[in-house]
Amino acid sequence: MSCGSPLLTPEQRSNLLQPLIKEKGWKITPGRDAIQKEFKFEDFNEAFGFMTRIALKADKMNHHPEWFNVYNKVDITLSSHDVQGISERDVKLATFIEKCFK
């Protein structure tokens, strides 16, 4: 049972996903329908604060990222597991993540 958004249509991929890829540096994850980006910070505290802001929003959305953190780097992968691919929720969370990164 899907509790979120359906997979992005080809038109949505063009209109919603491409700006994240072309303008913000997100990449399609090889071998799966997901988007990924690595973020780099001054130090661990800054990276952890970034993750905390995202965690609070993700929990409210009931849409949790896959992520990996080492010191000042945070690698984030977004995909909607309930539909096994990229949905509008991934785009919304990626857009929020970009706002947190500024």
Automatic annotation (TrEMBL):
GO terms for molecular function: 4-alpha-hydroxytetrahydrobiopterin dehydratase activity. Signal peptide: none annotated. Its EC number is 4.2.1.96. It is an enzyme of class 4 (lyase). Gene3D superfamilies: Transcriptional coactivator/pterin dehydratase. One of its GO terms (biological process) is tetrahydrobiopterin biosynthetic process. InterPro entries: PCD_sf, Pterin_deHydtase. It catalyses: (4aS,6R)-4a-hydroxy-L-erythro-5,6,7,8-tetrahydrobiopterin = (6R)-L-erythro-6,7-dihydrobiopterin + H2O. Pfam families: Pterin_4a. Keywords: Lyase. Belongs to the pterin-4-alpha-carbinolamine dehydratase family. This is 4a-hydroxytetrahydrobiopterin dehydratase.
